[in-house]
Each structure stands twice: as C-alpha cells, then as structure tokens.
Amino acid sequence: MDKEILKTEAGCPDCGGTGWARAEDGSMRHCRCLASGRLQRLLEEARIPRRYEHCDLYSYVPNDPTQKRALADVRRFIDRYPLIDVGLLFLGPCGVGKTHLAVSLLKRIVAEKGDSGLFYDFRDLLREIQSSWNAVSQTSEWEILRPVLDAPVLVLDELGSNKPTDWVRDTMAHIINCRYNDRKITIFTANYPDTPGRPGEETLTDRIGVRLRSRLYEMCKLIEIRGKDFRREIRQADYRF
Known about the structure:
- The protein folds into two domains: about 1-45, no CATH class; about 50-240, P-loop containing nucleotide triphosphate hydrolases (Rossmann fold, 3-Layer(aba) Sandwich).
- The protein has helices at about 30-45, 65-80, 100-115, 120-130, 140-150, 165-180, 205-210, 210-220, 230-240; strands at about 20, 30, 85-90, 115-120, 155, 185-190, 220-225.
- It is globular and about 70 Å long.
- The protein has nine helices and seven strands.
C-alpha cells in the first residue's frame, strides 16, 4: 500500500496507532482508521473551498424541474463512475446550485469510490499561473498545471468568467484538450447560457470560442439549470443581526 495510505490515527481505540486490529474471527486486519486517514487526505488535496465544504446531495433542495433533473443526473453519474467516459457541463444563472452539485459530486467520488479529485475556480487558477511568472515565485507554471491535468476528476468552476483574451483562451484550450485526449473526467460550471435568451446576451461560445465549445459538446453532458437566485431569495431572508 501507498505510504500515505498507511498513516494511522495514534489515538485509535481499535489499533492504538499500529494500523492493525483484530477481526471477529481472531485474524489481524488493516484497521479502519487507515481508510479514514486516506479519505481525509484526499478531501484536503481536493482543494474544496471552505464555503463549499458543507455541500452534499442531501443539502441540495431543488426548487425547479431543471434542478430536480440535474440532481438525478448527478446521482446517476456517481452510481456509474468510473464506468463512464463523459463529464458534465452545468450551465445556468447565479445562485441555482451549479457549484453545490459539482462539489457534492466530487466529494461523493472521493468518499464512495476512493478516487482522487481536484476543485479549481478558473479565475483563481489563472491568477496562480500568472503569479508563478514572478521572479521570486517558488512555484513554476508546470507545478500548478500538472495536478489540474492529471486529476482523475476535475471540477473547473466559473468557466468563461475571465475576459476572453488570447492567453486565457490558450490556457483553457490546453487544459481542456489535454484532459480530453487523456480521457479524464471534467466537471465544468458556467454562468453563461448555451443560446442567448435575450438580445445582446453573451453565450458560453462568446466567452470561450466556437472550437472549445464544440469540444465540450463531445466531452460533457450538458445540464442546464434554471430557477431563482438562492443567495438572493433565501439566504438574504435568513440573515439576522
């Protein structure tokens, strides 16, 4: 087993930190605290922001038919993983639960399937890459990108939110194409619609370009979510001082 996996809990009542516990038949087995330690490590390495640590499928309350369908799609995805070869693309306005569902999916894959994953807000990823160009930076661009390219499951939040400069599009293309070629599962969220709902409204294609949007059609199932802004309609009503 991996050395990281063999980390034990020193105060474990079953093994006392040895990593071995006696089973009911008298034989010695690897202690359950090994799995607990590995799960904790995988969740920490997933980089899920504290604001979303509470997210789970049970805490997602659908208030629209599209939200109910999205929740059902996520449950089916988890059930079929890893026997699945396409990711998901959540599209919809702010506050309808796109990131909540994406994080919930990632956490379930880690906890139930034992696979590793990674969460990145695309805006933060670009900032980290740009910071690596600083002469005093201790981190190279490749050190930042490698886990993004290698993660078995990647959640890339807020795709298309940055101003679509040539560099931004080139970076998006590199990440998307590498993961596509390696058949890695990628979960995207974006606030832009697939087709304009009103005159002058920007679409995801406007933000990322025709070629990348076409690539996403091939590597992801589209899940469009509508509904009221949860943050504005419900959270604001809950705030008390």
